[in-house]
Every structure is written in structure tokens, then in C-alpha cells.
Amino acid sequence: MLLLVGTLAAAVALLAHPAAAATPAPTLLTLRAAVAFDDVYTTSTGETVRISVSNELVPDEEENQAWAEFFGSLPHGSELERVTIYVAPGEEVRTICGRSALACYSPQTEMIVAPAEETEGQPSRQSILAHEYGHHLANSRLNLPWSGLAFGTKRWATYMDVCAGVEAGTLSMRQYELDPAEGFAEAYRVLAERRLGLEPSPWEIVDTLFEPDETALALLEQDVADPWLRNTVLRLKGAKTRSFRFATPLDGRLTITLRAPRTSVYELRVPGAPVRRARGQGPASVSTSVCGTRLGTARVRLVKGKGAFRLTVSRP
Question: CA distances (Å), 191 to each of 63, 84, 211, 292, in order?
Fold first, then answer.
């Protein structure tokens, strides 16, 4: 099983061995879609889901509507109306996704390639496609400075220490079972199964490091319903020399900007970053990553002159 995203490539193959997984070529997907039955279905909640059916199959309106209702019942936001579900026979799925794959997701086309039939001895199609929708959801969420698709959603990734794990090498985008993207998709699958009362699939395709507890599921659900969009800003001020401590509740990019009075020079020190000086004619900024640290610090020191300084803290 392998995630190939962006520079890593472009698909998510569920239940495919890394050596066997393949990238769905956009040209192949385009060709398949060009000869497929395609329609948009309205769910009972008034949302729409686009479903395409391979020309190797006979379209079934009732089944297509049922799949639209299924995806509409998953935890989701406005990204639902951008996804396309491409239903194909198993052999075609394997041609597109990889020879051992049961399904996959293409972030470029926002398409889930779905099997038309159940596979004996494997999780249900509902569980498989919940996993794939997890990738679509992550692809639709911001987690700057990282990719939401690669790291998972902001609050979930922070709680699961994804940034620190990747830095330490305990998590790896090159190893499926340790890949945060796959860990997120599996956690989303668990959330979906619970929400819909589905038979839970065993936790076996990714490392138990990702197995979600109640907090992880609650934060994931919050990321679905109330996506993180941007940093929050703290505005502080002082004079002479002062030290500041502030909470950094989420991993991401921290930027601190110091502004000095016109006739003064102030020095800004932030752990792990070069010392900066702000003069009256221009501010000084420091930008660094918050990665597993829930408390930030900054020290401002008067070098020359007098007057109050202003400090702006942009934190994730």
C-alpha cells in the first residue's frame, strides 16, 4: 500500500503492496472517463455527488443513487461536491491503481476509483471507499506549511505529532505503514465506520502509532466540520527589555514581527532563529516552524534609543 502525492506522485492505492502500487496516469483516467457513463446525483440532504461508471459496466441508477447517499453520509464539508466516484470492474481498477490495489484516489483529478464488486476476504467497499474519501478530505484541507494530503489535517496532525515524527524518522512518507497520509485515511475510516454504524475493519494496514483514540477522532471530526484556515495573531507591546511566552497550540509556521520607534533600535531573539534588529525605518521578522512545542518564547532588548516597541505573533 502506497501513497504517491505531488512530487511523491499522484495516487493512493488501498491494500496494494508498495512494490505493486502504481500511479493512476491522468491521461488514462481522462480516457476512461471519456467513455464512461457520467451523472450528478442529488442526495437526500440536497448535496450533489458526481458518479461515473466504466463502459465495461451497465449503469444502475438505483445503485448510483445509493453510493451518492453513502458519500453524502460520510463526515464531510463542501469538498464533497468536487469529488468524482469512478466505478469500474476489479481488473480495470487494478489497471488504473496498481495490480494489487482495491481502490485509489487521484488528487489531481479529485477522483476516487472504486471497485464495482466486493472482494472476498477484504474489507467492505464502504470501508475501502471511506479510506479513499479520507484522502480527498485531507487534500481539501490546509495544513501550512505542509500539504494536508501528505500530513493529514491540522489538529489531527498536531495531536499525532506528525511533524516531529517525520523529523525524527519514526514516520515516513516512503513507507506505507508509517505514512501519515495513510494513517490519517485509516483514522478517518474508523470515524466513518463509527458514524455510520458499519462493521469495523481491523486495524492492520498501517502502524498502530496511528490508531486513533477518542481525542484523535474528536480532533479529526473538528477538522472536518471547522477546517483550520489561517494563523491567529497576537499583538503585544512593551519597552526596554522584555521576555514573552505564548501558547502554540498547533504545529505550523510561526512568524514574529518586531516594530521599533523611529529613533530606537530593538533586538529580537527567538529560539532556533537568527537574532534580528528592528530600527525605526523598518520592522524585523523571524519565521520558524512549530513542531511539537506547545509554548513559544521571544525576547526583545533595547539596544539604543527609547520608546515602546510593538510585537506581532502570527501562530498556527
Answer: 24, 21, 11, 24
